[in-house]
Specification:
By secondary structure, the protein is α/β, with parallel strands linked by helices. Helix content is 21%, strand content 26%. The chain is built from 7 helices and 23 strands.
């Protein structure tokens, strides 16, 4: 049995920052994640994707953000159970929660924090016959390493921020880059749309709308696609990579069975106080929660983590009075000029 103060379900950026905020309050944390390494989607799906809205960083790669968060929280020595899914949860008469993974590992704590991002996720795949035959042989739903596409003929399909951002990123990497979308209007941010339009005007990319891929061809790997263009004859393009970026389909999985109040595949929380769910002692922070005015941004998840930890402290230490101290005066390692070189351990017990 792994015993701790906070069980954090999800080791993405928000879960990792929770370790730091809890550590300032001298609370121990143990994280559970189905992925084999910390970082969530930032590590697994797009480690080389630049992020622009992290305070203090005009631009930072998703993977680098995860590395920094791991360094920041390592001084508090969190425990990790990786490659396992939080499957069941029970609460005993003493108010302690026991979280059991799909592999039978048991974790016990007075507070549970669900920071699972979008939950389990699957890419939304286009309805194209035999597309699975070309997966990782010319068809990819995620971009983990942009260098793979250097000097390649690449086709991106999609109209959201992910499709636009990667079009901008790969414009100077691929030898030929085409972006298609089923509509003339894009769903992404205006700034990204304008950047893509400028790339088109400079002949750095080809932009085809409204259009969609209707078939793929190639022997042992993808060699080309057939594109249906509105009111025109279908055309064929020779390409090396087809990257449909239609977003992810989130799935809460077993969390649906925990008695939490769910709304549109998200966990409802009380945002007027501390992001607690309808079950006292269970909190939900980051993209997995919902409340009026919710913004699914990493920086908002960081704020929710800080607020949540204050309430968690009161649950764990009901007889103690908490006094807020700024990190500049609290003497926390790493903030008082000292350098502490430690790596976060992956372990099965923190007793």
């Amino acid at each position: 049995m792994i015993k701790t103060d906070l069980i954090i379900i999800g080791a993405g950026p928000v879960g990792l920052f929770t370790v730091f905020e809890a550590g300032l309050l001298k609370l121990r944390c143990h994280l559970i994640d189905i992925l084999p390494k910390p970082g969530g989607q930032c590590s697994e799906l797009y480690p080389k994707k630049p992020i622009y809205d992290i305070p203090g960083y005009p631009e930072i790669l998703a993977g680098d953000l995860v590395d920094n968060l791991l360094k920041q929280c390592s001084q508090f020595q969190p425990g990790f159970t990786l490659g396992e899914r939080a499957d069941k949860i029970n609460k005993d008469s003493d108010g302690l929660f026991t979280v059991i993974t799909d592999k039978g590992t048991k974790h016990q704590a007075p507070v549970v924090v669900i920071a699972g991002g979008l939950g389990g996720f699957q890419p939304r795949k286009p309805s194209i016959e035999n597309i699975e035959l070309y997966e990782e042989k010319g068809v990819s739903y995620f971009i983990k390493d942009p260098s793979i596409y250097k000097n390649k003929n690449v086709l991106i399909a999609g109209g959201g921020d992910s499709a636009l951002d990667w079009t901008i990123e790969l414009a100077n990497i691929a030898s030929n880059l085409t972006l298609i979308h089923r509509r003339n209007e894009f769903r992404g941010t205006l700034g990204s749309v304008e950047k893509v339009q400028k790339l088109k005007n400079k002949n750095k990319i080809r932009l085809i709308t409204p259009a969609e891929v209707v078939s793929l061809f190639g022997d042992k790997k993808l060699e080309g696609v057939e594109i249906k263009i509105n009111n025109l004859e279908n055309i064929k393009l020779d390409i090396d990579w087809f990257i449909p970026l239609f977003g992810l389909t989130p799935k809460l999985g077993s969390i649906n069975d925990w008695g939490l109040e769910i709304e549109k595949n998200s966990i409802k929380v009380n945002n007027s106080l501390d992001y607690q769910t309808n079950i006292p002692g269970i909190f939900a922070i980051g993209d997995i929660n919902t409340y009026p005015g919710k913004l699914k941004l990493i920086l908002c998840g960081f704020h929710e983590a800080a607020m949540m930890c204050q309430s968690a402290y009161k649950i764990i230490n009901p007889d103690k009075k908490f006094v807020l101290k700024y990190t500049t005066v609290s003497g926390v390692s790493g903030f008082d000029g000292s350098v502490k070189k430690t790596e976060p351990p992956v372990r099965k017990s923190i007793d």
